[in-house]
């Protein structure tokens, strides 16, 4: 039976570390602030956004939620982002995805100031992450997966990591992090056009699945003893559940847990780590502004 990786507990540790850094920054006069822009009322997005703002408050950070109607125009959303880019109380800005169909996400991700882009989705940060420049912001989900592996002492060195999915938010940055010096994995990236997916997944020492198709990965597709990281979060209708739905990952958890060496559950695996790493990116953004201001103040005093 696989060890079940407790993402909730590890995220709690990171959030406690974040809270300590927030306290230090506050003592020096900076309150880290995160702004979340939500357009429309997608029920899953509302849940995520609420957990993000709650996590900020618990860590002693300032958080602001800006809600725009489903019918918001391009100009309205540009205006909202520009306002936050210029607001000195806000260090991190994120536009919750998905956006309604009339709005093209790319335009808005590029509008967020790269210095406040704590999601790491601006091309400037995507590029920095790809070249391994630590000044860039790494997207929270892949950063959270690396942190899970590190804190669970799962060695990535010379291991074969197979990633299923090719998203900009998870798979591409994760591939880059896993193959970087220090992590040293051999990385295979697979996606919907891959012929015979199982042939690849069975070779994985570390299997990461980020597709959003419940049950995609069955036990036969997993090598005995592998580490399985399930990034899927899909709401599946379930009338027997008081909420009317349950959250399912991409992995057939019950069967795969009997074969894998370690596995992340859904919920309670990667999801909570995503939020913890978003907070960490936000304090990094605030720390940079703070350090720049205190250097200036010192130079002025001389
Ligand atoms: N601009 C932007 N940045 C994002 O980071 C972003 C986004 N848009 N759009 C949607 C995805 C998804 N995402 C999750 C965050 C937390 C959980 C999470 O905490 N999940 C809980 C369960 C939550 C529940 O009950 O629904 C868990 O897995 O234990 C899941 C998914 C961030 N995303």
List the bound ligands. Answer: 5,10-Methenyltetrahydrofolate
CATH third-level topology of the largest domain: Rossmann fold
Biggest sheet: strands, sense, closure? 6 strands, parallel
With helices defined by DSSP (H or I, 4 residues minimum), what is the helix count? 10
What is the element string, with H for helices and E for strands? EHEHEHEHHHEHEHEEEEHEH
Structural class: alpha/beta
Count all strands and give the number: 11
Report the β-strand fraction as a percent range.
15-25%
Large-scale geometry: globular
Q: What is the class of the largest domain in the CATH system? A: Alpha Beta
Low-confidence stretches: none
Supply the CATH architecture of the largest domain.
Answer: 3-Layer(aba) Sandwich
Summed up, the domain count is 2
- State the CATH superfamily name of the largest domain: NAD(P)-binding Rossmann-like Domain
Strand order, main sheet: write it out: 1-11-8-7-5-6
Question: For the CA atoms, what is the radius of gyration?
Answer: 20 Å
Task: State the distance separating the first and last CA atoms.
Answer: 64 Å
Which whole number gives the mean pLDDT? 97
> What is the share of helical residues?
40-55%
Binding site for NADP(+): 165-167, 233
Subunit structure: Homodimer.
GO molecular function: methenyltetrahydrofolate cyclohydrolase activity; methylenetetrahydrofolate dehydrogenase (NADP+) activity
Function: Catalyzes the oxidation of 5,10-methylenetetrahydrofolate to 5,10-methenyltetrahydrofolate and then the hydrolysis of 5,10-methenyltetrahydrofolate to 10-formyltetrahydrofolate.
